[in-house]
Write a structure and sequence with these properties.
The chain is α+β, with helices and mostly antiparallel strands and 228 residues long. The chain has two domains: 106 residues, no CATH class; 86 residues, YaeB-like fold, CATH 3.30.2310. β3 and β4 form a beta hairpin.
Length: 228
């Protein structure tokens, strides 16, 4: 029995040193089971977006998109100043003395980022447009419904390859906050607009199985598919 107790003590000591090594030398990046990292991973699973107002603040403060993503890597979550119980949650994260907020709207594929946060009351923007600053590392992030109308519209656009759609969204995409509906059930619906050459394309998207699921396209001439 004494030998077993000694072995357990050695195991505990070794585990403790190993945990300290990971936490302080790897900055928790390998510990996805830690509460803070689970929150950060949940945010990085979404598409990060900033409103036009936040974009202007970023220019003034000389903050890049990459620096906002780094906040998720190196920042500290301020749970006491976050709202983790609301239907549209947000987490306040501090880095280098500055506070940033990342929203997690329920059943939505976006996380809106706010900088220089001073208020505890934050909601996802409901008017104007937002710009995408970071996407999950998934080349098959886009999924398109297989209904006859949507397939017809894809044919008119010659956009059957979802990787091509994702490329266009990354290059010229923006979210139309005013035409999105975070309260739609069972899934929040967003309007995402992008360009194909000189053609303006508007899509309706929901979050389904960690994919940006396109349920409709709208562009000049797209109504012709409704008549077939």
């Amino acid at each position: 029995m004494n030998k077993i107790i000694k072995r357990l003590k050695y195991y505990g000591i070794g585990f403790g040193f190993g945990l300290i090594f990971v936490v302080f030398f790897f900055q928790n990046r390998g510990c996805s089971w830690l509460p803070g990292n689970r929150v950060k991973n949940s945010i990085l699973d979404r598409v990060l977006v900033v409103s036009e107002a936040t974009s202007q603040k970023m220019v003034t403060a000389n903050i890049s998109n990459e620096q906002l993503v780094e906040v998720l890597n190196d920042g500290d979550i301020l749970y006491s100043e976050s709202d983790t119980k609301a239907e549209s949650k947000f987490y306040l994260i501090e880095k280098d003395g500055k506070k940033y907020a990342f929203t997690l709207p329920q059943e939505s594929f976006i996380s809106e980022v706010f900088i220089d946060v001073k208020s505890k009351k934050l909601k996802t923007t409901s008017e104007g447009y937002g710009h995408f600053i970071h996407f999950p590392l998934d080349s098959t992030l886009i999924y398109v419904d297989t209904g006859a109308v949507v397939t017809c519209q894809q044919g008119m656009l010659n956009l059957f390859n979802t990787k091509d759609i994702l490329k266009l969204v990354k290059e010229s995409g923006r979210i139309n906050f005013g035409d999105s509906d975070l309260e739609q059930k069972p899934k929040a619906e967003h309007t995402v607009e992008f360009k194909q050459g000189s053609l303006d394309i508007s899509t309706k998207m929901i979050w389904y199985k960690n994919k940006l699921n396109i349920t409709s396209f709208e562009f000049e001439g797209s109504d012709d598919c409704l008549k077939k």
